[in-house]
Structures are given as C-alpha cells and as structure tokens.
Amino acid sequence: MSSIELEVLNSDDVVVRWQSVVSEVREEYLSETQHFPWIIGFSGGKDSTLVAHAVFEALLSVPPSARNREVHIVSNDTQVESPFVMLHLDEVTSKIRQAAEDLDLPITVARTHPDLDKTFWTLLIGKGYPSPNQSMRWCTDRLKIMPTSGYIKKHISNFGAAIVVLGVRRAESNKRQQTIDAHKNLRASRLNEHSEISGAYIYRPIVDMTTDEVWETLGTFHAPWGGSHGALFKLYRDAEGGECPVVLSKEEAPGCGTSNSRFGCWTCTVVEKDRSLQGYIDSGNHQYRPLVDFRDWLKSIRNDPERRQAVRRNGRLTFDLTGRHIPGPFTIQARKEILEKLLSTQTEFGSKLISDAELDLIHEIWAKDLQQETGAANGL
Ligand code: SF4
C-alpha cells in the first residue's frame, strides 16, 4: 500500500508516538544549556509540515513566561518553484503566521529568495549558463543553499549560534541515512553540528519516523494553526508524491533534481521528466501544460552547438581530458530566443514567470556582453 493511500487511523500507537515526539521537542525547547533561536527549514512538504506542527504544538504547551526562544519558520522561494507548490506554501505559511500572532507565540514566518544576480533567469538568459544537468548543476547552490544559509548565518551572528530544525528522516533515502549517520550526535545531545555552517546545529525531531507514520500522524491530527492537513494530502495525491527537500549543504544537494525530489523548480532540466507537474496536469490542471512544454524545449536545445558560444565567458576555449571541446554559454541570439519563448509561455500561462527586475538586469548583461564582443572583434 502506498503511503498516500493509507487509511487514516486514530490508533493508540499513532497518538502515543506523536505525544512522545512533541514532548521531546518541548524538552529540547526548554533546554537550560542554551537559548539559541530555532530555524525550521520549511518546504511545505509532508516532513517539514510535521516538524512545524510538532514545534507549534510544543510551544502551545509551554507557559508564555517560558517561551524565551525565538522560532523562525523559513521557506525558500527559488522564484522558479512549481506554482502549485508555491500556492500551497503561501496558504500554509499565512495560516501559521496568523495563528502564531493570535496565540502570541514567538514565531516568525520568513521567506528567502536567491539574490537578483543569481536567479535562474539571470544566469540562464542573462549570462547564458547552459540549463543545468547532473554534471553541471549550478542552480542548487545559488537558488537554494545560499539564501537559506544566509538567513541562518545572520542569526548566528546575532545570537552566537542557531539551531536548524529539519524534517529529515532516516527512512527517506540511503543518501540521507548516510548523511545522518555521518553526523551522529557529537555532544551527547539531540543536536549535531552542521557540516558547512559554523555555529549552526541540526536538530531532527522526526528522524526515526517512517513515511507511513508521517502520513498517519498528519491524517490523525488537525493542524495546530487551524484546519486539517487535507490540502497537503491532495497536493501529493495530484502530483504523485515526493518533494524537493530543504537543501542546506552540498552533501545533501544530490537529492535535489532527482526522481526522489519531484517538487522542485518547474524549470528543472536535471530530471528527465517533471513528474509532479505532469501528474498535476494529468489530475486535470491543464493550465500547467505550457510550463512543461517550455521545460522540455529548454532541455532539448541545451546541447545544440548552433546555440552555444565556442568560448566561455572568460574568453577561453575549454577542452575535457580526452581533448573534446566543451562549448561555452548560450549565444546572445539563443538567450534572446529563450526569453521570447519564456514571455510567450508567460502570456499563455497567464501569470508572471520572470520579474521586471530580472528583465532589466538581463538587458544590462546583454549590453555589456555585446560591448565586449564588439571590442574583441575590433581587436580592443
Ligand atoms: S530542482 Fe532542479 S533546477 Fe531546481 S535547484 Fe534543484 S536541481 Fe536545480
């Protein structure tokens, strides 16, 4: 039986298991040894939703005078996120924000974005970076790791350290299991040092839960910020499951843009097919068809030599170890073609896919590149 088809059981086991998770979270929150802020990496998927649920519930059980630790629920918008995931994320985060405010909980709901000069469109259409693939995946670092790490680092510099609360689980994948095992508790506590961000500690409250337990719990209890988790079940059902996890380090990056992480960027050319978007269309959401067509086209032109410059952006010819020439970025002509196609996809889709600020910066980059090309042609 697949997890998404689970019959929702209000079994004693689920209740007992959940009470123990929430009481551990409460205990950790009230730890006397440190009061560093908690930063929950919130993707809107099932695991991070369950972690936010546990923390929210634990906070409600703590007397107001003891709620002395800040909790941040932080989601990242790559700006090319699957639009149906963003819709869900917007809805849930605004409910959490409102409920936290009404209940006077020390929760801040935040959203991070990549810097303007590092967005998918600025790099792909502005600078001509070839669309990402397994061997040249320039996107994860810039679109996901840097914005979230930036938020964490800011709080480390304010407080001396920060605790990153994640919904990662041992049962999720072999890769995750290895990562978790490689960072076993260092200080006889529930916290592990982050492998790349100094001053950050990782706390994984649901690390030992199975996928079925996660779904059973979400199906058994109402969301503490109001309503049920029904929309989440529908999201997974329509998209046939899987989400792009919160990615915080390079060792976890391989999980992004794989068949295990199907809620990624709608532009993702690392995967063979965007199964979640396709699943969404198959579930009757035909408005997403232009996005899938654009992504497929983008993937198909990646290695067309006519659309790639011979030299890299630094002006050098590059060869691999076998002496094979490695083409440079997309030509300006190809970048213009991609932009035209994107704008017509945007019109067909009926919603913004690229921001005005990105368009301005792209035109600035093209002007500089053209100037350089003309200078080089004139021997300047
Ligand atoms: S989902 Fe794909 S495009 Fe987005 S960051 Fe991950 S690998 Fe890159």
Protein model, in words:
With 380 residues, this protein is α/β, with parallel strands linked by helices. It contains twelve helices and eight strands. It has a domain at 3-115 and 137-255: 3-Layer(aba) Sandwich (Rossmann fold). The chain has helices at 12-29, 46-61, 83-102, 120-126, 139-159, 174-182, 211-220, 230-239, 275-282, 289-301, 332-349, 356-377, and strands at residues 38-41, 71-76, 107-112, 162-165, 191-193, 200-203, 318-319, 325-326. It has a six-stranded mixed β-sheet, with helices on both faces. A two-stranded antiparallel ribbon has the order 7-8. Helix 1 (12-29) packs across helix 2 and helix 10 (289-301) runs antiparallel to helix 11 (332-349). The chain is elongated. The protein starts with 11 loop residues before the first helix and ends with a helix. The model is unreliable at 1-8 (pLDDT under 50). The structure holds iron/sulfur cluster. The site of iron/sulfur cluster has 15 residues, from helix 5. Residues 78, 132, 137, 139-140, 143-144, 244, 256-257, 264-265, 267-268, 270 line the site of iron/sulfur cluster. InterPro entries: PAPS_reduct_dom (IPR002500), Rossmann-like_a/b/a_fold (IPR014729), Sulfate_adenylyltrnsfr_sub2 (IPR050128), SulphurTrfase_DndC (IPR017598). Pfam families: PAPS_reduct (PF01507).
Helical content band: 40-55%
Strand numbers in spatial order across the main sheet: 3-2-1-4-6-5
Q: Would you count the extended β strands for me?
A: 8
Structural class: alpha/beta
Biggest β-sheet strands, sense, barrel: 6 strands, mixed
